[in-house]
Design a protein that fits this description.
The protein is of the alpha/beta class and 450 residues long. Helices cover 30% and strands 24% of the residues. The structure holds pyridoxal-5'-phosphate (PLP).
Amino acid sequence: MLHFKTSLNYFVFLQSKLSKTLPGKFMKYFPSDYFQYKNNELYCEGVSLKSIAGKFGTPVYVYSKKFFADRYLEFANAFKSINHKIFFAAKSNFNLNVIKIFYDLGSGIDVNSLGELYRALKIGADPQRLLLTGVGKTKDEIKAGIELGVLMIKAESLHEVYLINRIAGDLGKKAQVALRVNPDVDPQTHPYISTGLAENKFGISAADAMEIYIECSKLKNIEISGVDMHIGSQITSITPYLEAVSKMIGLIENLKTAGITINHFDIGGGMGVLYNDEELFTPLQLAEKLIPLFKQIDCDIFFEPGRFLTANGGALVAEVLYLKENMNKNFIVVDAAMNDLLRPSIYNAYHHTQPVIKNNNEDIIADIVGPVCESGDFIAKNRVISKLEQGDLLAVLSAGAYGMVMASNYNARRRAPEIIIDKDKFFLTRSRESYEHLLWDEQIISNLHS
Ligand SMILES: Cc1ncc(COP(=O)(O)O)c(C=O)c1O
């Protein structure tokens, strides 16, 4: 990635070579310009994580504003030679102030539900800078999108198009609609975040697209404005994009021949990020390959990046509760759990972990686990890490995307607070939940127990 200095890339490369000889992955310190040690203490920008943990307790999410801004500008600059719009995928991190950082930089917002739409409106977003997406939108969601006049509603089936047409008619409005087309390409990522294969639930099949577009063009209350795709997430090769974009350009040209004009082509999100030792492409490299293809068609290009803009801008800081050995296996029990960061449990995802205060202890191999009553509750398995003591702080990196947004109250645990760092200042953007929050509107019903 562009923001990792070349020397650090080389460092990662060396570490990845090393990982082949050590049990578990071994990357002792994660390369980052945003989370760095100063005098052996881990900082986010100019603020020590120890001070954040001291003030707000643990577990706590910490984000770097500079990371978010740098990645957004990196992406926007890569495509500056073409007419394009970026819509931050709020599903990756829907914290109000995180959304607002991107919005204020010029981004639109890709919202996937009424809840995300509500959040976008809360920051004062102009509906013309919103895309409404989602494979199973409810009537209420569609109605809200039309009433507000969002820039585009992305339909994923003919049934949905008919429903949008009917609701728009009832409201006496015309809805701007794009069809999400499933190009049937393999994004070579985890099956759970692969969305552009024919077997996935997303979009309309590429084979039926022409026919469905023609059917849509006959409906009175919708205006077909675009072609959309999103083939998956954490994609580490440009090839699937090239394949899918080429297919969609073929479709756009055929539509033009059939008299259907497409104003925008939305290629979705999906760019992979560094969690461990992945080989990645930069936005500039993606732009170099895709821009010549985009020039074949005469329409605006839309992007919906999420993970790329947020993942490595966030860390989850936890405290070590206990150390123990079971059958010669080391366990580090921390106070962050699967309810705080679900990715390791559901995708077996790798998140780099390192002590907030660097120590000179020997390295051990341990499972880093949380307090939730599930064997699937782990942050890392067989991780090589310098031996920690009870009360030490641990930073779980790359937690800015699909972290807090997937947090739950499982085991009646309160969700963690979120802090945004801007240079040497910190801002509490969401407090830790109280136990009262967990009982919101839940009461003992006396008649039930009489
Ligand atoms: C329609 C759509 N757009 C954009 C995204 C963002 O993807 P990513 O975070 O991988 O960039 C997603 C994520 O699943 C998505 O479903």
